């Protein structure tokens, strides 16, 4: 029989995995912080508990054949302990450690992958020294716990850091020069325990306030650069030993490609794969962690763009304007069923078209109807 | 807020509607005969009760904004009563009546649509007279309650009819000549209450034992015939006033197109639309019955084929062989989570390819791996 899959977290990524799981008749159990989270409304069995709680993770592991993740705010040591006790955890604690930016930069840099100049600061002096060497302004990122722009600071000195963000041994900061970016890319790779890969088209990502807000596939870059990005991402997937999806976010600089972040799970920059690829990142994540053959990652449209649906500033709920948005041809609306709050990710829209800019424009038309927000010019 | 939708029935069609409903954040309530039916495992609210029970239908209607269907084994008079009490039922009792083959033939024939020569028999004498006029062999179909080949008999006389299938006033038979069919087609049309349409590509359907077992899109027919089929189906959708999906099954004979059956809901011959069309029949059914704008029905691949996964004769469960099937490239496996019984519809496989025969071959490769059944030569 198909394996039972446990997902740590019950947000929109788990929700979209659950939609794929229904087609494959895979049984899911989600570890949710609260009833009503997106994936609790998909037929998955719901286990209430915190991803911080080793007992909750163990209860989840005991009910399923394989444990996987909707987010990486999990202690890798707890996962190692589960693994030692014979539970199957995919990706493993070893892979999850790469969500720690200090570990990632240090490990990948040592392995010869191109990473930005960096320092791991555990005290104030290290910050001052890095500003001195790379200033006037530098970027400081919380090594762990940051997401969607939280925990990232552009600073000219210690005074620009919030008091609770000062580096310590327990909470180090990763410091980087303020790079001049030509663009940002993301490469999504599905991988199974046998080491098989399926690599999706490289996408352009457009961040706003630290959130990956727009993606366009395929990226508008020369074929050689796309090949280089795919080869780099694939080599990283092998290096870290990922299973299921791995998102590799890359900077394009005058000096070439640099690795920005890794996310060992389905990723916001891969939502376009639901309509735009032969197999979605959500289905391939499940196939990967269940050690099933991976599906084709081929593009299925000339161009595909995705834009996030963020909660409008006035607190209104985009669900009220669904009918308007659905009138935009070839725009596919995905809502996560979450309560509206300003700036909260409530959904996304994917559109297909003959070229990436037309697809992005179409997706924005639907987003504007949902939220009132217009495409930045 | 988006409307709450009630579905009468909780089989695989309701399951696939539920997967679409999750993306649109529509809330579903399904009227299920038993817990564990496919759509009860999708996060929909479950109301246990029989579609035969007017009280159960009323309880469903009272919990939702619109009532729709996963099957048409429902008494139209009950639906009329709900409508009279202000409940929204889409499609209406009037549309559901067209599932009665006697009503359908009589009404469409009178309206000038091409239907086979037919008689509605309510006694034995009418059967003998029709055999005399159109024999040696004719087709007798139960006017209501038949599906997937049940209730259809090829007979040379009364003796060939099971005793309990003899026609009566209460249970008439529709009689037809045994037609020589060049092929069978299906046209799927989404329609909303405003009368907007979205018409999908005409598909070739291949029946086996009375079940629509294979479909190929687009149908391998001249463009003029495809246009004629679409125009005919669209005119029928308007005539019957369908909302949501309507499947129009057509015979191609030496005398041209004839209307075979209507199904006022998503249909087995439209499963290919999940991967093969811009908007699936399941999403468009929900959009139609909720009076939301319809999505594009455009083909998204050169050719798309679907083959049913039927329970193997040895009673084994195809879920055990999922990994083998997923190794077939560009084959999309859909399982309904139903217990395996010989001949039971347990799922389907859709494959895309450069031409319909190649797509069909690919879908069959995966089906063979799931069931051991091979493509008929």
Task: Describe this structure as you would to a colleague.
Chain A has helices spanning 12-24, 54-63, 76-84, 93-96, 101-110, 124-134, 223-240, 273-276, 281-289, 322-326, 356-371, and strands at residues 4-8, 27-32, 45-48, 66-69, 119-121, 138-142, 152-155, 173-177, 183-191, 197-199, 203-208, 211-217, 244-253, 256-263, 303-310, 331-335, 345-353. Chain A has 377 residues and is an alpha+beta fold. In chain A, strands 9, 10, 11, 12, 13, 14, 15, 16 and 17 form a nine-stranded antiparallel β-sheet that branches. In chain A, helix 1 (12-24) packs across helix 9 (281-289). The mean pLDDT of chain A is 95. Chains A and B meet through helix 1, helix 10 and strand 16 of A and helix 1, helix 10 and strand 16 of B.
Oligomer: homodimer
CATH topology tier name of the largest domain in chain A: D-amino Acid Aminotransferase, Chain A, domain 1
The H/E string of chain A reads: EHEEHEHHHEHEEEEEEEHEEHHEHEEH
The main β sheet of chain A shows up as: 9 strands, antiparallel
Number of β-strand runs of chain A: 17
Number of helices of chain A: 11
CATH structural class of the largest domain in chain A: Alpha Beta
Q: Give the name of the CATH superfamily of the largest domain in chain A.
A: ATP-grasp fold, B domain
Query: What is the total domain count of chain A?
Result: 3
- Given as residue ranges, the uncertain stretches of chain A (5+ residues, pLDDT < 50) are none
Q: How big is the Rg of chain A?
A: 20 Å
| Largest interface: pair, residues per side | A-B, 41 and 41 residues
Strand fraction of chain A equals: 25-35%
CATH architecture of the largest domain in chain A: 2-Layer Sandwich
Instruction: Supply the helix-strand structural class of chain A.
Output: alpha+beta
Termini separation of chain A = 52 Å
